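Aim 2 progress update. The chain analyzed this quarter is reproduced below.
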Amino acid sequence: LEYSKPQIGGGTANGYDPKMKIDGKLLSSGFIALQSEGQPVDFKNIWIKELPTPNK
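Predicted structure tokens:
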């Protein structure tokens, strides 16, 4: 799975600061979250690999 231009937006957000949530603004940093869809799940040995920027 690869995202080329991650940006803010979509869905409903409650209790947010409108100065921080600007729909369409490109992300330059952030967090990675793991979730399950309603059932318990365990995650272990998760590795994040930074990939080189492709030359265009």
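The two ends are 20 Å apart (CA to CA). Residues 40 and 47 are 21 Å apart (CA to CA). These observations will guide the mutagenesis experiments scheduled for the next reporting period.
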